[in-house]
Amino acid sequence: MWFGSSPRLSNMAVAxxxxxxxxxxxxxxxxxxxxxxxSIPLAQKLAKKTGKQVFVSSDLSSDHKMVPLxxxxxxxxxxxxxxxx
Length: 85
Prior knowledge:
single chain, 85 residues, alpha+beta, 2 helices, 21% strand, PAC4, Proteasome assembly chaperone 4-like
């Protein structure tokens, strides 16, 4: 999943649930231009919700004001179109 304010791939993270730790999926930054990225936390939330491996890319920082709205919209889309997730 990608979201951001400009069409570029600047940060990418992956997260997946393991059988050893059920509280929070493991997440890893695959590529980054800045240390302040919301890719890992969002990938972990999506992996926990879907039970699948999730890749997230974003060029927004974690303090961006739109982050809560973006997360809310993603979860709305998941409810409306579960077959796409």
